[in-house]
Specification:
With 277 residues, the protein is α/β, with parallel strands linked by helices. The chain is built from nine helices and 15 strands. It is globular, with a radius of gyration of 18 Å. The chain starts with a strand and ends with a helix. The model has no long low-confidence stretch (mean pLDDT 95).
Length: 277
């Protein structure tokens, strides 16, 4: 397939593009910069919102995988609301012009404060601008896709574990602090439980989801089990042979975070099983 990946130079985009290429797809990778994008991809370093007819500009792809999103780790950034119409307008143009399938990266923060297992029917009551923006785009994208008879996939992402120092997750920040030679890393109590998934597994799941069209709608990209934040971070430090130590209680727990939350992985498990046959 010919797959257009937006936000391809970002932390997630780099790994997902690489996986899609390894799986034999033709990838058109779009971002403001192509610096870290796999050289096998056809790159387009432009402002994708500026394209008058993006479907034609990006060479009529079969699938749109929309990863582009500004300030993803700054949960109260105004960009989540200010950019919403731009994302919607871009996706609408692609749907109206003839794209066959649209997949967008979502977030478990769409759900809001919730304890337990999240599936595609779990009600969404987001409490932060990031979650509100993502949830609104999900609803708009689903409506637009249905109106134009386009296959709709919403990849709801959970907590990604990776040792790149260039990301904005806690794991990336710990890696960066370790490389700076810092002895301690300020931390919360670490008691909350989340669904953690390794970076390579996340990229593999996301790629597998968009490479098929039998299982659609909301698809959790997740491990399917909860783990205490402190346990996963301590294990991450051991796995990478870091010397840095956690300074517990330096920061308060975020009031909008759930005590224990994880994704239902039945759909992605089925997708992976079908892909291996």
């Amino acid at each position: 397939m010919k797959i257009l990946v937006t936000g391809a130079n970002g932390y997630l985009g780099q790994g997902i593009v690489r996986q899609l290429l390894d799986d034999g797809n033709e990838v058109i990778a779009s971002d403001f910069s192509a610096e870290n994008i796999d050289r096998r991809a056809l790159t387009a370093d432009i402002d994708l919102f500026a394209a008058e007819n993006p479907f034609v500009y990006f060479q009529r792809p079969d699938v749109l995988l929309h990863l582009a999103w500004r300030d993803g780790f700054q949960h109260y950034s105004d960009a989540h609301i200010e950019d919403l119409y731009k994302h919607y307008s871009f996706i609408r143009k692609m749907c109206e012009a003839g794209i066959r399938r649209v997949a967008v990266m979502g977030s478990m923060h769409e759900i809001g404060h919730y304890d337990g297992c999240i599936d595609e029917n779990t009600p969404c009551n987001p409490t932060i601008p990031y979650g509100i923006g993502k949830n609104a785009l999900r609803e708009l994208t689903e409506l637009t896709a249905k109106k134009n008879s386009v296959c709709f996939q919403w990849l709801r992402g959970y907590y990604i574990v990776g040792n790149s120092e260039y990301g904005n997750s806690i794991f990336s920040k710990i890696t960066a602090a370790e490389k700076r030679g810092e002895a301690e890393f300020p931390f919360t109590t670490g008691k909350n439980q989340y669904d953690f998934i390794d970076y390579t597994d996340f990229c593999r799941q996301a790629a597998a989801a968009v490479e098929q069209d039998q299982i659609n709608g909301i698809i959790n990209i997740c491990s399917g089990r909860p783990e205490r934040l402190a346990d996963r971070v301590e294990r991450f430090i051991r796995e990478n042979n870091y010397n840095i130590r956690l300074k517990y209680g330096a920061f308060p727990d975020r009031p909008y975070d759930s005590k224990a939350v994880w994704g239902n992985n039945q759909k992605i498990t089925s997708i992976l099983e079908n892909a291996s046959k």
